[in-house]
Amino acid sequence: MPMGKEHLFCRHYLLLFSFLIIMCLLQSGFGSYQDEQSPVNDYHHPQYQPHDHKGLVMVMRRFSRAHPPQPSPRIVNVDRYGAKANGRDDSQAFKKAWRAACLASNGAVLVVPRNKIYHLKPLIFSGPCKSTLTFKIYGTIKAWVKQSEYRERRHWLRFDNVHNLRVTGGGIINGNGRKWWLNSCKINKKLVCLIKNAVTFYECSNLIVSNIWFQNSQKMHISFQSCLYVKALNLVVTAPENSPNTDGIHVTGTRNICLIRTGIELGDDCISIVSGSKNVRATGITCGPGHGISIGSLGADNSEAYVSNVEVTNSKLTGTTNGVRIKTWQQGGSGFAKNIIFHNIEMKNVTNPIIIDQNYCDQDDPCPQQASAVKVSNVLYRNIKGTSASKVAINFDCSETVPCQGILLQDVAIASKHEEPTKASCANVILDTRGDVFPYCFNN
Ligand SMILES: *[C@@H]1O[C@H](CO)[C@@H](O)[C@H](O)[C@H]1NC(C)=O
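^ Those are the sequences you sent over. The predicted structure of the assembly is below.
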């Protein structure tokens, strides 16, 4: 890369960085208002018992703060609306409680008491609400297991068009997914694909999701769909390693979102970022087992896809099938994935630590090579260290017709778990390096 261009390239990232950092700071500001109110002093945060995910639960530590005087928000306890937590369906009580909280004009706190397990059928929590709303989950919310209750619904819990919402409390949202996994079309090809996401936020804005343990989702655990200004932090997301399609956090059509200090162990992508997403920052993520952190897949069924300004930093992946991946479908599509930074990432025994796969084909019929593709450009990999479980630690498998451009590797060192050194495989990529980079493709 000539000097002038290189300068521009770096400056571009500096700008992007400042933007993302300012964005996260602004959001912390807007987020603190509810923290400081802390209107439910008489409730305590549950103590987590020792369990398999001890390390992950460390991230759920929370601080309490004093609260300044202001009009007190309405406290709506689901138990007062008839929730029993006795193994029967509590959906109606939650529906009524939500309605009451949503109509409150000085803010509301919807309380799900601790040490209890509430079972819910598919539910939509609709907005917009009259004022700010905090959903305090201290106890456990568990999905109704009978699949016939879901019918054509694509979701279990869905927050629709809610603004200034905070979901927090230190409790558990359990998708009760085992039955869904057994009936997954991914595993049994004869079955229809009817699996559901656990929690979807749809067209929400100014949203904070924090201090919740998401478990055993039917499909994706948390999906942010067409949302604006989102902060998700101190979450724990767990499902078995062999559970199909149980993505951790799915970001689609969402702009200005920060994912912070979250531990994820499950059977699919820890984080997946797909079309329409812009200004996405993930930091302090631990991932594994799972399929890693993915941008894509993009361009399925010849669709247009646009993803830009993504930063993944200060994260650690252990034993995952992919590390940081960008994947676009082989059978065409258009649009772009650009301005992406992966930096300060530690990989341990990751099968494909760094991968761009533009020949992705996840269907029974072969995907024919097409002339069009989603264009991948301006991707920086910086300070990425660790070990690869496979020989090919860096794999750029880009489109022949739309090559990857502006790919920069800086201070990358990925060793092999085995005796032979790791390799890089590079096809149709315009690539540059800074600092020490290993492995590197010399044929490029
Ligand atoms: C490393 O990863 C491979 C492939 O996923 C797995 O078979 C192996 O057990 C892992 N090794 C360690 C030490 O975790």
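Helices lie at 3-37, 54-57, 91-103, 178-182. The chain has a mean pLDDT of 86.

Shout if you want it in another format.
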